[in-house]
Write a structure and sequence with these properties.
Elements (H helix, E strand, L loop, with lengths): L11 H4 L5 H14 L5 E2 L11 H11 L14 H14 L9 E4 L2 H12 L5 E6 L3 H9 L3 E6 L10 H7 L4 E7 L11 H14 L2 E5 L18 H4 L7 E6 L12 E4 L2 H12 L7 H12 L3 H22 L14 E2 L19 H12 L1 E2 L1 E2 L9 E4 L4 H18 L1
Parallel strand pairs: 1-10, 3-4, 3-5, 5-6, 6-7
Antiparallel strand pairs: 2-8, 7-8, 9-12, 11-12
Helix pairs in contact: 3-11, 4-11, 5-6, 5-10, 12-14
The structure holds pyridoxal-5'-phosphate.
Pyridoxal-5'-phosphate binds next to helix 5.
Length: about 400
């Protein structure tokens, strides 16, 4: 098709959406790889493992069932909603019913459905930063206004009730709470979650709690119990939506299954929205998700052990680079070091002054990709995913170290 259509035909609301910066870095790294360059990529926010075999087998079986060849209820297969109910009680202790669950095309879609369902134009949403850019874009698309609460490593990137209180206004509709966090890997403890939850309940605002990384918490001995906001602060339950999914825990990012848990009337309204957009999520993927939730958790445990080993490795290697400081994240699979001390130096004739420029310089010169902090509204920092092999961590961070040592 000719690309001659004027750009002003794009609606203002869609034209205003910023492209996903995390995917952009990953795309550049992949393009360099395709061009034959030996790039080490720390950009992607997804497990590097294949989906466990018992889940794949369940999907293969589901392909042969004609029920799965046709439309099914938009809100999700009853088997999956029941599996979510059982899994939620098992992992966090939250008691829900199938009517509290809406299955979405991944957790990102669940965030979208929740924001479109709850926000009116002009509603303010408190969003602690550094934050995953998708939240801000979805809030704006839904007509809301993100109110950013900035945090840094001095509080381990955690927002306090005092900071949240300052961001509160008569227009505040919701708080977005994420633990473990993308991009910082920060994990709030039970006391901190209870304090924030109590504050939310007192103010009467809504809370969207994104618990997609619930099982990727280190320095604990077992996978469960996971900390969930409506369990830490039961008074939030009536105005709480929980986001979760199979993507990160079970290495299933490509299957696109997530869900939203909330009060029945919110779920019904979001179901209505999805029934006029996506209809049901692919049935084969839903049956794979059932197998994931009901199946043996030993593969999850072993992936978690591997991430934990890589977490320690990447932290120690990053801290060995002159100028880099790095908080020790307790969850997800990201580290979020400060690269401020690397700015303003000259690397083979190039002098980056922002982490965005530094990321480009390091990609060009050392063939190492990471996501600059600008993508998370946190210039000066960078996100490295350690869902990559130990040898790639050693090689990639080693290359960065050599470039920095030659240049500083
Ligand atoms: C905090 C958080 N929530 C949700 C998602 C999206 O997950 P899904 O792949 O299930 O859409 C991500 C993915 O990076 C994430 O980091």
């Amino acid at each position: 098709m000719e690309d001659s259509i004027p750009t002003n035909v794009i609606s203002a609301k869609v034209a205003a959406i910023a492209p996903s910066a995390t995917l952009a870095v990953d795309a550049k790294a992949k393009a360099l790889k395709v061009a034959g360059e030996n790039v080490i990529g720390f950009g992607a926010g997804e497990p590097d493992f294949p989906t466990p075999e018992h889940i794949v087998q369940a999907a293969i079986k589901a392909c042969s069932n004609p029920r799965n060849h046709h439309y099914t209820p938009t809100s999700g297969l009853l088997e999956l909603k029941e599996a979510v109910v059982a899994k939620t009680a098992r992992d966090s202790g939250l008691q829900i019913k199938p009517a509290n669950v809406l299955v979405s095309a991944g957790a990102k879609h669940a965030v979208y459905s929740a924001c479109m369902t709850l926000l009116d134009p002009g509603d303010e949403v408190i969003l602690p930063g550094p934050y995953w850019g998708t939240y801000a874009e979805i809030i704006s698309l839904a007509g809301g206004i993100p109110k950013i609460v900035h945090t840094d490593e001095s509080s381990s990137f955690k927002a306090t009730v005092e900071q949240l209180e300052k961001a509160l206004s008569p227009h505040t509709k919701m708080l977005i709470f994420v633990s473990p966090s993308n991009p910082t890997g920060t994990v709030y403890d039970q006391k901190e979650m209870t304090e924030i939850g109590k504050w939310v309940a007192e103010t009467g605002i809504w809370i969207l709690t994104d618990e997609i990384y619930e099982h990727l918490v280190y320095e604990t001995t077992s996978l469960a119990p996971c900390l969930s906001m409506p369990v830490c602060a039961p008074e939030t339950t009536d105005r709480c939506v929980v986001i979760n999914g199979v993507s990160k825990t079970y290495a299933m990012t490509g299957w696109r299954v997530g869900w939203l848990i909330g009060p029945e009337n919110v779920i019904k309204a979001a179901d209505n929205l999805q029934s006029n957009s996506t209809s049901n999520i692919a049935n084969v993927s839903q049956m794979a998700a059932v197998a994931a939730l009901e199946g043996d958790m030993s593969s999850v445990e072993s992936m978690r052990d591997t991430y934990n080993r890589r977490r320690k490795l990447i932290i120690s290697l990053l801290k060995d680079i002159p100028g880099i400081t790095c908080m020790e994240p307790k969850g997800a699979f990201y580290v979020f070091p400060s690269l401020k001390a690397l700015l303003g130096h000259t690397y083979n004739g190039v002098t980056p002054t922002t982490t965005l420029e530094l990321a480009e310089t390091i990609l060009d010169q050392a063939k190492v990709a990471f996501v600059p902090g600008e993508a998370f509204d946190a210039p000066g920092y960078a996100r490295f995913s350690y869902a990559v092999s130990d040898s790639d961590i050693e090689e990639g961070i080693g290359r960065m170290k050599r470039l920095v040592e030659e240049s500083i």
